[in-house]
Amino acid sequence: MPAVEIHNDYHKVFEGLLQRIRRYDQTADISLLRKAFEYSYNAHGDQLRISGKPYFEHPLEVVKILTGLKMDWETIAGGILHDVVEDTKISIEDIKREFGKNIAQLVDGVTKISELKLLGSEDQQAENFRKMLLSMVKDIRVILIKFADRLHNMRTIEFLPEEKRKRIALETRDVYAPLAHRLGLARIKSELEDLSLKNLEPEIYKDLVNRIQSTKRERENSIRRLTSPIRKTLADANVRARFEGRAKDYYSIYNKINKRGIPFEEIHDLLAIRIIVETLEDCYHALGIVHSLFNPLHERFKDYIATPKSNGYQSIHTTVMGPEGKKFEIQIRTEQMHRTAEEGIAAHWKYKEGKSREDDFDKHLVWLRQVLDFDDQEPDKSSFMEHLKINLFQDEVFVFTPKGDLHRLPLHSTTVDFAFNVHTDVGLHCLAAKVNGRIVPLSYELKNGDTVEIITSTSQRPNEDWLKFVNSSKARSKIKKWLRDSKFDSSVALGEEMLAKALFKFSIKLKTIDLVDLAQKMKQKDDKDLLASIGRGDIKIDTILRRILPEDKKEQSEKNVFSRIIDKARKSSHGVRVAGIDNIMITFGKCCNPVPGEPITGIVTRGRGIVLHTNNCRNLLKLMQDPDRIVEVSWDVDKNYRFLAGLHILSERKNNLLPNLSDTINRADCIIKSIKMTAEDSLITCTLSIEVYDLDHLKRVMNSIHKIDGVISVKRFND
Ligand code: MN
């Protein structure tokens, strides 16, 4: 590239910036930076922005924002070069060759994020968001350059056509500002929000600016009356402090007026001050002084120094009743806390051998990784978006274990959220909860400072209802996963049994079959998926058999035994619905022969598919000890289908008992399937199996039998 002489003004700006960088980053490669500035200047050449100004001013402004955040020299180089690949003929390989791998990666990351459409269909949005987060995990500096880029674009957005302006403002408000907030970049976040508001709601914004401007003097006087006694007392106590009026934050004022209906005059942010001191001890000292001079409103006191917010924010917040009965919010913090509060993740950047101190980033990166891990388990993209939104916008509630350990949860969390936060196993088995010593429902919404104790039981399991009240994404995804897995496991067990039984008819053992190979042929992920599909009925047994049986057995398969077995399985599943599973083999427990209307439970068995038992069957208790085998079932009766019921009848010896019995049963519209009578002395015992429509029908016929001359008792057949 031919060298172009750099405009004198720019040259001065460069040197000024380089000076500044050299001061806070001693590792800076100044000659490489100078080269990057010149390279970018040459590459953008005589390109103009829509405003008519030279394009090069944009990367230059981006770099100014980045040096304001005291970003390391590589980030600065990435910042000056960030639009070179996107907007000029220079390729990423050129950048790599000229400036090395690290800087090329930064430029590449920013270029890729710019290509993503972050608003759009949920699916597309989720996927693009995920890509952006992935690039952040790789190198968080990419997003810091992107923030600076977006901030300068928002500052100069007025030159764009309205539609484009609105779209960019919306994306900024819904994606970049919340992300900046989550990473603790408060100053950038609030400027992004204000600029979004200015473009999305220009009238409201103008009105707000006017109102704040017109009440400025009055407000400053109020603040002075509050701060002068505090200043004086602090000085007397030798606590060095500086005061700061809270920066104007139009968007948060707008939100309070519009979303929470608070009148403009009552908004505390307008009367907020910060006291910035030197040490941690000074914070509490200053707090004591403030509280001794003005009455605090206790419900609004928050100590984020003792329990920092998850984005690392630390400060003491207190609201006091000031002069003239006006409320003031006061924030007290150290300089270091102040910098973290304003710059978040950028404040953690330390310059030690040119590298960041990894541990300082951990809490942000942990959050990012959690978001991305979640996506790995969750095939549903829209719930990833929901999860991300919860994580970005969440407010928090702080609660304690009985031992005093602190847990931080999203606002509106319940005891179940807490249980999952303690440990997945605690969540999966939580039976009941005590809050501050009292038993509460599992859906109880936690409040700040609650002490929560979870009572677990090994037999307790999550159920669908929990999803209606849990609020943390962790609890939600763990419950969903459990529900999915438990259904999956029982389908696998069932599929295995069905297949084994089917093969047994041909004297083939299941273990001689290569299930992995079979799964591949059937386009299933693996053997377990194959068995689950069989269990669910998605793949028919005879389809499988046609694949694996030798030729001579196929004929037999299709015509005889299996069609009969399948028919039987289908027939016996008639009338019962099993939660979430279709087309599975169902049989009725021979011990209790349930009939429609009776409460029933399904048990996954070896050999007989799902076997149904009445809930008061005495065998059921034993079977339920293996909770993995229990499946939820409910009656779904076809009017024409009859169920088998067994009866024990005890009668005096009467000659006409048998004709009476058969007549009664016929008239009750029942069908006798079998009958066995034994006489002993003067008593007759009769064991009878009949077909009925449902429980009511059975009860009616039992009553009629009871009325037959000589009958002493009629009981359900149980074993
Ligand atoms: Mn740019």
SSE blueprint and pairings:
Layout lengths: L7 H17 L5 H15 L12 H12 L4 H8 L3 H4 L4 H8 L1 H15 L6 H17 L2 H15 L6 H21 L3 H15 L1 H13 L1 H21 L4 E5 L4 H10 L12 E6 L2 H14 L1 E2 L5 E2 L12 E6 L5 E8 H9 L14 H20 L3 H13 L2 E5 L5 E5 L4 H8 L1 H5 L1 E6 L2 E3 L11 E5 L9 H4 L3 H32 L10 H7 L5 H10 L4 H8 L2 H9 L1 H13 L2 E3 L7 E3 L11 E5 L5 E5 L3 H6 L6 E2 L1 E3 L7 E10 L4 H11 L3 E10 L2 E10 L2 H12 L4 E6 L3
Parallel strand pairs: 2-6, 13-15
Antiparallel strand pairs: 1-2, 3-5, 4-5, 5-6, 7-8, 9-10, 9-11, 12-17, 14-15, 14-16, 18-20, 18-21, 19-20
Helix pairs in contact: 1-2, 2-4, 3-4, 3-9, 4-7, 4-9, 6-7, 7-9, 8-17, 8-18, 9-11, 10-11, 11-12, 12-14, 13-15, 19-22, 22-24, 23-24
Bound molecules: manganese (II) ion.
Manganese (II) ion binds next to loops.
Key structural traits:
single chain; 719 residues; alpha+beta; six-stranded mixed sheet; four-stranded mixed sheet; 52% helix; elongated; binds manganese (II) ion
Please provide a written account of the structure:
The protein is 52% helix and 15% strand. It is an alpha+beta fold and 719 residues long. Helix 1 (8-24) packs antiparallel against helix 2 (30-44), helix 7 packs across helix 9 (141-155) and helix 8 (122-138) packs across helix 18. The chain starts with 7 loop residues before the first helix and ends with a strand. The model is unreliable at 350-360, 375-379 and 557-573 (pLDDT under 50). It binds manganese (II) ion.
Instruction: Enumerate how many helices there are, as a single number.
Output: 30
> Which shape, going by the Cα principal axes?
elongated
Helix content: 40-55%
Structural class: alpha+beta
Distance between the termini: 94 Å
User: What fraction of residues sit in β-strands?
Assistant: 15-25%
Mean pLDDT over the full residue set? 80
Largest sheet features: 6 strands, mixed
Rg over CA atoms: 37 Å
How many beta-strand elements? 21
Oligomeric nature of the chains:
single chain
